[in-house]
Specification:
homodimer, homeobox (chains A, B), disordered N terminus, DNA-binding transcription factor activity (chains A, B), mainly alpha, DNA-binding, DNA binding (chains A, B), 5 helices
Chain lengths: ~170, ~170
DNA sequence: AATATATGAATGAACG
DNA sequence: CGTTCATTCATATATT
């Protein structure tokens, strides 16, 4: 019995916001992910085939390092506003951070900026700011989490209440 | 593969026709889709490059339309629950602001949050954001008003200007 | 229903 | 570094 069960999960849930999705939305997500996965697989296979036949095709050789090579995605802006990282740039930055790069050195910033510029307009200042903001916001998040954990240390009841509220949401159809 | 996974399903809790997801789960989904999108983009680009150079590669041709068709770049329509202040909460907040509280201290935010929670669900972040938005929008309004005062342009011109700003952006290649 | 606006939230950049 | 500002994104609500 799921409803009101509160047997939600391991320590996954935080006291942060929760989100509600409909079946249709979940389905849509699955479809998108499946579609991307299929396309990636096909493309990758095509490249393997092609590479096997024609090893000297320019630009194709070191596919293993997919993230570091190719294309400039979209830089449509004429009016220079604030930097908006492309999904690729973000992905790379997030990965670097998650792998322990929290306060990159000047040289590191130079390098990664140069790598990221293959995926869109970017400056060293952008990268510097990104890491700075990341650190600050991660830290604040950790503090909030820790604090609210401490608050509810002996009060899981409150949490239960919160869960209960959501249960009331029900089906319009 | 490394990217796919069924973790989503495990964590999703069934509740009538809606599901509740944690921030972490949503984040994970977004990451997955962003990752696939970025990889597809790269592979497609590489493929185009390669195809341009070597059009008659066996095994490549009959699949060459693969990347042309599907992937919807749209990110999931996840309905995020955002705080909607009750009229009572709004009244109190407006009053505080009008009485000179523009940038409340952390402690002040704590206090007011706790007071406001008597009138409905609310978090410190909600309060913080409210004041932040209030400041920004008040400032903007003041600036607009002042500017239109100085200008002899018609009143409607002002709004037209605002619209015009966006028009410049565009044109990828 | 489709578009426009109001406003909560996220985030790049700047400040002290 | 911590905090705040400025801009943008996303969603709820209003308007047509």
């Amino acid at each position: 019995g799921a409803i009101g069960g509160g047997e939600v999960e391991r320590g996954v849930e935080r006291k942060g916001a929760t989100y509600v999705m409909t079946e249709g939305q979940i389905e849509e997500l699955r479809r998108q992910i499946a579609a991307y996965a299929a396309i990636c697989e096909q493309l990758a296979e095509m490249h393997r085939d092609a590479a096997a036949q024609q090893e000297s095709l320019a630009g194709m050789r070191n596919m293993s390092n997919v993230y570091l090579l190719p294309p400039p995605p979209q830089v449509p802006r004429i009016t220079k506003q604030r930097w908006i990282p492309t999904s690729m740039q973000l992905q790379i930055l997030e990965r670097e951070y998650s792998q322990g790069i929290e306060t990159p050195s000047k040289q590191y910033i130079k390098d990664i900026t140069s790598a990221l510029s293959l995926h869109g307009q970017i400056t060293e200042a952008n990268v510097y700011n990104w890491f700075q903001n990341k650190r600050a916001r991660m830290k604040r998040k950790r503090q909030n989490d820790t604090k609210s954990e401490a608050e509810t240390e002996s009060r899981d009841q409150k949490k239960a209440n919160k869960e209960t509220v959501r249960v009331q949401i029900d089906d319009p159809d």
